[in-house]
Amino acid sequence: MTTVVSLGGSIVAPEGPDPAFLSSFVALVREHLAVDSERRLILVVGGGGPARAWQRAYRDARDSGGAPEDHDAQDWIGVMATRLNAQLVKALLGPLSPQDVTTDPTSLSIFMGRVLVAAGWKPGFSTDYDAVLLAERFGATRVLNLSNIAKVYTADPKLDPSARPIDAISWAGFRAIVGDEWSPGKNSPFDPVATRKAAELGLSVICAGGRDLENIRRILEGESFVGTTIGPE
Question: Is pLDDT at 57 greater than 70 in this prediction?
């Protein structure tokens, strides 16, 4: 049984890498895999603070020099940050993750070991989309999306005090919240490009807080949890 986890960069490296969290998360992974030898995990790691910092530096330097806006250039900077974070996670997993970090989910033909670690692919979407493609490739029916929010809200609670948390929502309802357009550094519970693909495949996505390790354990074990389930009608 394969589970895909989109591990938000804001969890792995909110500003810089978080060694305490990483140690606890890897321990949880080992515990989960030890229960059943058939269990496998795909971890798709985001860019987090390093991606935002380097993209911001690019924008500031570009604006000072009067250079034209280049979304692809900004996206590539974010992609490279995901690859650095992913390499760190892979190194901590040791023999559980013998393959190189995956950077192109469409070219992967085999899954070696117990954990496959993946990073950003190319401009145009976030690592959420890579997670969906890997779920399709290896027959996973759900993606666990871990970020710095515990649930999806009806609107951005920082901007709308009437925003309410959601326990479950259809893909159509979710698309009405996040829209259809991607932009580098876009802050969305699950990126719009990934949303369209997941809806097309009929996947379920669980959005949950990435720092609540006991809650993550409950999700992985099929127990009751705190989070938002997005799925087919």
Answer: yes
Cβ of 18: how many Cβ atoms within 10 Å?
A: 18
pLDDT in tens, 190-211: 888 889 999 999 999 999 999 9
**Could you report how far apart the first and last alpha carbons of the chain are, in Å?**
24
What domains can you pick out in the chain, each with its CATH number? 2-231 (3.40.1160.10)
Query: What is the β-pairing status of strands 165-166 and 152-153?
Result: antiparallel
The pTM (predicted TM-score) of the whole model is: 0.92
- Look up residue 213 and give its two tokens: 């390790």
Burial class (CB in 10 A: 0-12, 13-18, 19+), 61: exposed
Rg over CA atoms, the chain: 17
Q: 189 vs 10, 20, 77, 161, CA distance in Å?
A: 12, 24, 21, 18
